[in-house]
Amino acid sequence: QVQLVESGGGLVQAGGSLRLSCAASGSIFSITSMGWYRQAPGKQRELVAGINSGGSLNYADSVKGRFTISRDNAKNTVYLQMSSLKLEDTAVYYCNCKVIVAGKLGESWGQGTQVFVSS
């Protein structure tokens, strides 16, 4: 079992910056990757950025060059630094981790944190 606690969401003006944090606890040794997803009303949940246990990164095309995912292993925390925010970035952002236990894959989700980008 892995529990994820998100923080850092809020209101920001277009062009501004915001940093989201996700702290993991529980069976953290089972985590193989972590990432950030987002979902806006009427839209599918989409992967924004991910980082695996080897440090490999991937980003959605819409956020490349603007968002950066990073991790602090000592704190079991993953961050999403968001810059040059656009109105289209408004969404609920969810932290996610993939886990493997006894050879089986699973995942955990955070509660979500709202990001609202204003004009």
Provide an overview of this structure.
The chain is built from no helices and 11 strands. It is elongated and about 50 Å long. The mean pLDDT is 96. With 119 residues, the chain is mainly β. The strands form 2 sheets. Strands 2, 4, 5, 6, 9, 10 and 11 form a 7-stranded mixed β-sheet that branches. 0% of the residues lie in helices and 61% in strands.
The number of distinct β-strands equals: 11
Q: Note the beta-strand portion.
A: over 45%
Tally of individual helices = 0
Secondary-structure element string: EEEEEEEEEEE
The best one-word shape is elongated
Unreliable segments (pLDDT under 50, ≥5 consecutive)? none
Q: Which whole number gives the mean pLDDT?
A: 96
Radius of gyration: 14 Å
Helices and strands, with pairings:
Elements (H helix, E strand, L loop, with lengths): L1 E6 L2 E4 L4 E9 L4 E9 L6 E7 L4 E3 L7 E6 L4 E6 L8 E11 L2 E6 L3 E6 L1
Parallel strand pairs: 2-11
Antiparallel strand pairs: 1-3, 3-8, 4-5, 4-9, 5-6, 7-8, 9-10, 9-11
Quick take:
This protein has 119 residues and is mostly beta strands.
Name a few traits of the molecule.
119 residues, mainly beta, seven-stranded mixed sheet, four-stranded antiparallel sheet, 0% helix, 61% strand
